[in-house]
């Protein structure tokens, strides 16, 4: 495939100098790998420097970069531009391959047009699959599951009974949605009695869920993942959790039962949220933090228990001065002793 | 389904006022969702308040609640009562559907009565499956595996060679039991030499294991999970670990090789246990803690390395006063300086 | 199977006393379980004491142990010796069982000699499988995947398009290699726009990967796992990460995008690495640590953010003395007050 820089600039709503408009671009690559004829992208100074020295024929740069030794397309959001250009050079091909003859279909299922279902997939009763849905091999859909149109399920995905999946949802391999919540009543003898988990999971439109994730069904009611959420690999979301829209959850995060996460929240890697807490809109939870109580909207929290990140940083800074502080206390004690002796002698 | 409050009270060994005994209950719901005709439950004050304002026709409450504006069933353990009532309204239906014709059965296997095995399940040689066992689709059972009666394996569960599973065990989707332990000998050149993992995993009766969990086989001997343990999603249990009875392990916990966990222990979410340590009976390990040495029975530990939670809390409280303490040290230093100058002037 | 102690000693390049050379060994067991006729091993004093009291007929011990009440084989590296002896008593049997008739084979695939492929495995187009490869049941190999000779894939492993796997690689059950990286561009309205993930994963020779692990494909270019790496269960490795040779990664570790891990590094359990950092050769990252910036080679780091472990230990020690330090500050304040009063009175 070949595209002129002018064509690409138009596509990503970027600015290109007229003299560069006819440069032909044959591909896109990381700055370290880019060869002649390819376009690359650079956001930070570090990558701008690398781009300068690369063999790339053109570079997508932020608007603020006015001068550059190579042809550029200047854009407001280079990451977005990269995504758009990658789509040009790597168009998503989703030709429907139909339903493989080995697929097991339960009673009363409804399947839309142009649906693909891969080999050895097992589909329960009363399942509804929207048009243009692509289901890979070895997938399991329990009774009463609904999958919205244009959704994509990778191999080995397991969706248990009555789960509702929105449109254009992507679920990566090995993920389990709708397993029982972790709910037990402790008996006097110390043993646990299972609380039946009779709720379901509801996933909004445009959600993407990574590999080997687990999202549990509600005890009663619904576990809800809002529209546009992006969930990384190996994340655990417990029963009755409610997650707003456009929430990003990085790998190995755990969210305990019945917690409520606002819109636009970011939970960084290996962070955790205890049960029954509310996290306000647009909160940023730093990596490895543990949220143990409600968090106000638009705050940046870190640590365990999670608190204001600014406060935590101040405290961390002092913690790293503790050996020095200990010495200062010792010095004061010694000096007091001297003063005391001095005063005593004085009398 | 309809049940009178009297009938339900009898079932859960609860107290109901005579005037309320004939109220008809048609379902059970969370306090937020409960409609007329439904029963809900409330433990804490927060939920008691919500229950007051709900549309529920009756509420399961703790014994201590003597007055309430709605019909109640008073019980010692409302969670247990909820579990029992959910079983009434959502009876477990496990009709044997038999063995699907696509199931692959190894040589010398023994299968009990009323066993169900779902499509595309693969079963190795000399496997024994007890009566009333229900195995879903796409499950793998390696050679020599034994599954006790009434156990339930969800889709995609993988049980490797020689694993023994007790009775009434529930294993959720995507879980892997009996993979090789992580054992290597380091050679002089820095490379690792695999230590063959020739032991097995033994799971006791009434254990429930979440989704995408991993429990490794022993290097030699057994990795053991005691009767009644409840394990949440994405938990890792390493080779040769021994876990007592009625232990609860929350999501994303990791337990390293050869550690021993006593009866009744609770490991909260994202906590970890290093190798070769002993955790005594009824220990509570707080979320995100890391146990690095033996823990005495009946203690509550937190932090990393995990120590007495009371001690940790006291320390955490001081840590959050560090900016203030720093100022107090500075003030003392200044004052000492003044005194010193004063004394000097005095001379 | 029977082996004389002499034969075993020769095999593991160990020293045995001549009088013990003809002792017949019929098996190998942990020190707690060893019976007459069996050999066990002991490294630390704790296990040496246990070995003394065991029923084992012989013990593999470190070279430094000159006197022992049982027959011994003295070796430089007892763990390595154990691994070698386990291989004798538990030889790896990998008889090729051929390709099961239910396996689905894509167009243009190449399969080497003596390959086994288990039931219900699905293999895409243009896949190349080297000789002596053993693929278990329910595995998925996407288009363009290559698997080097003698590699072993356990049940339910999912390898997505264009992944390259080296020789003698072992991948445990449920692991997903080549899922999309977690890459999105944030738009002005707060929603995320997917960055197509068009790179691949390349796994070196002699790598072992645990169960339910996730290794994401690169956005562009490659995610690389170097020769000889050993990865435990439930580990997450993000897009474009580069891992050197002989790196050991313990369970529940997460490595974020584009980070570079040197040769011989050890990442202990539940540790994490942020994106775009470099960890030098032979670094040891303690359990639960979080690496947030570049780490020099040959260092031992811990904590979050990860720093020199010696420094962290010193700080931790002071942290645990904080209640005492607080008292010392209070005492100084009180004494200052007394002095101040004293001086005032003095005037």
Can you tell me about this structure?
- Three copies of one chain form a homotrimer.
- In chain A, 18% of the residues lie in helices and 28% in strands.
- Chain A is α/β, with parallel strands linked by helices and 347 residues long.
- The first copy, chain A, folds into three domains: 3-89, 3-Layer(aba) Sandwich (Udp-n-acetylmuramoylalanyl-d-glutamate--2,6- Diaminopimelate Ligase, Chain: A, domain 1); 104-309, UDP N-Acetylglucosamine Acyltransferase, domain 1 (3 Solenoid); 313-347.
- Chain A has an eleven-stranded mixed sheet. A ten-stranded parallel sheet of chain A has the order 8-11-14-17-20-25-28-31-34-37, with no helix packed on it.
- The first copy, chain A, is flat and about 100 Å long.
- At the A-B interface, strand 21, strand 22, helix 4 and helix 5 of A face helix 3 and helix 5 of B.
Would you kindly provide a brief summary of this structure?
Three copies of one chain form a homotrimer. In chain A, 18% of the residues lie in helices and 28% in strands. Chain A has 347 residues and is α/β, with parallel strands linked by helices.
Q: What would the keywords be for this entry?
A:
homotrimer; Udp-n-acetylmuramoylalanyl-d-glutamate--2,6- Diaminopimelate Ligase, Chain: A, domain 1; alpha/beta; flat; UDP N-Acetylglucosamine Acyltransferase, domain 1; 3 domains
């Amino acid at each position: 495939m070949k595209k002129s820089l002018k064509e690409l600039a138009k596509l990503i709503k970027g600015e290109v100098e007229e003299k560069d408009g006819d440069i032909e671009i044959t591909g896109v690559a990381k700055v370290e790998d880019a060869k002649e004829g390819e376009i690359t992208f650079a956001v930070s100074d570090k990558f701008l420097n690398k781009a300068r020295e690369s063999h790339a024929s053109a570079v997508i740069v932020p608007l603020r970069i006015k001068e550059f030794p190579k042809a550029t397309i200047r854009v407001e959001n280079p990451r977005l531009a990269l995504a758009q250009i990658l789509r040009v050079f790597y168009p998503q091909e989703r030709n429907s391959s139909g339903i493989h003859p080995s697929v097991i279909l339960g009673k009363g299922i409804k399947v839309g047009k142009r649906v693909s279902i891969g080999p050895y997939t097992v589909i329960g009763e009363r399942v509804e699959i929207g048009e243009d849905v692509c289901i890979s091999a070895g997938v399991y859909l329990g009774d009463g599951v609904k999958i919205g149109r244009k959704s994509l399920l990778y191999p080995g995905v397991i969706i248990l009974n009555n789960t509702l999946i929105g449109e254009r949802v992507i679920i990566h391999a090995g993920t389990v949605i709708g397993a029982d919540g972790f709910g037990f009543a402790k008996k006097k003898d110390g043993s646990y009695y299972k609380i039946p988990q009779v709720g379901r999971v509801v996933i909004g439109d445009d959600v993407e869920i990574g590999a080997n994730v687990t999202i549990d069904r509600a005890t009663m009611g619904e576990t809800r993942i809002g529209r546009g959420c992006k969930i990384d690999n190996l994340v655990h979301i417990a029963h009755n959790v409610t997650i707003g829209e456009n929430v990003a959850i990085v790998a190995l995060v755990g969210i305990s039962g019945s917690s409520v996460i606002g819109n636009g929240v970011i939970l960084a890697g290996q962070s955790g949220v205890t049960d029954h807490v509310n996290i306000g809109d647009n909160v940023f939870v730093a990596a490895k933090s543990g949220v143990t109580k409600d968090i106000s909207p638009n705050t940046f929290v870190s640590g365990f228990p999670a608190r204001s990140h600014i406060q935590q940083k101040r405290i961390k800074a002092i913690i790293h001065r503790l050996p020095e502080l200990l010495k200062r206390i010792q010095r004061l004690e010694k000096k007091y002793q001297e003063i005391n002796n001095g005063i005593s002698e004085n009398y």
